[in-house]
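User: Some background: our group keeps a shared notebook of sequences we're curious about, and every so often someone picks one and asks for a predicted structure to add to the entry. Today it's my turn. The entry only has the sequence so far, pasted here. Could you supply the structure so I can complete it?
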Amino acid sequence: MTANDREQILVADDDPMSRRLLVRTLVSAGFACRESADGVEALEILHKEIPSLLLLDFDMPGLNGAEVLKRLRAETDPAFAQLPAIMLTGHGGEESEVLCLEAGADDFVTKPINPAVLRARIETQLRLRSMRRQLQQQNDELEAWRTNLERDLEAARLTQQSLIPQKTPALEGWNVAAVYRPVIQVGGDIYGWLRMADNRTLFWIADATGHGASAALLTTLTKLLFQHGNAEHKMPATIMRAVNNDFRTIFGARSFMTAMCVALEPSTGRATVVGAGHPPLLVARHGGETEAIPSSAPPLGLVESSNFSETDVHLAPGDAFFLYTDGLYGANEAVEAVRLTPEKLATMLQPAGLDAHALLASVIAQATLGNGDKPLPDDIAAIVVKRSE
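Assistant: Of course. Here's the predicted structure to add to the notebook entry:
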């Protein structure tokens, strides 16, 4: 091992004989040493080249060991402020130990010095220094990873935002409101609307398994599958079946998602509903009643040939339907006594006199009541479609 490979120790002691003995002991133990006769010289040497450890006599003329350490610990550069330092003191007893530690020493050795004790304490401090450096390196790597992750999530957020409609469709005699609140920058919920070949409007919503970037990728695929299914098929059930088949072809039952769609004929108010493992569609009547239309098939991707049956419903003036993901159920889970169910959610769809935007805002406010400023436990997406009175 060369001198450049060895840990370097700066020995600061005003007694030449003690200093020489210390240096000889340390060199024989495999360390490289530099010497300083007082505190001022020690600081000058430190600022030219930082050693691995400082061995510092407590009693020195001019700047004593405590004053040197006080200046050292006040440095803004961590390389100086966190330099391991062992104080040498000829004063025995607890009071001396406290003085050394209060001065900023990492450890102390009392005189006359036992070489074995000194070496053990030096090696302990060097080992701790190495561990601190490793920890700092790991922290730096984690910070770089976090920065890259946040950059990737922001790119994913912008991509997902481009997939989610920013404007509701303009349907004569109807008003539409929608909301999307992911747990983090991106989520596994998505919704949309499409013009069908027979001029009906297909409102659809889906909830992919998981959260974050992986779930967001599934939402990208989901939108493409619904667009493709709508272009190739005329009925909501066959559209849902096509989405299911394509989803299974890609993932082979290794992933799934819940979904529901409503094909609405704006001129008449007639609608056809198809659900796949999704929370029930809620229909709020102008008179104050609420109906629930459950899913008729398991989640998309689980079964190859699901029976996607259609349910017809008619919406009269003042009626509204509510599509949502199950994130609403647990949005206020901090208040267990008011944990939502489809039945409780249905009661929030009144009063019927509100327009779609006010109705949706009211439901979200009630659903998240009690959550406070805490992050939502699950993604939330919802659509309200209401016929004008």
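Suggested note for the entry: The CA atoms of residues 269 and 374 lie 40 Å apart. The domain at 164-387 is CATH 3.60.40.10 (Phosphatase 2c; domain 1).
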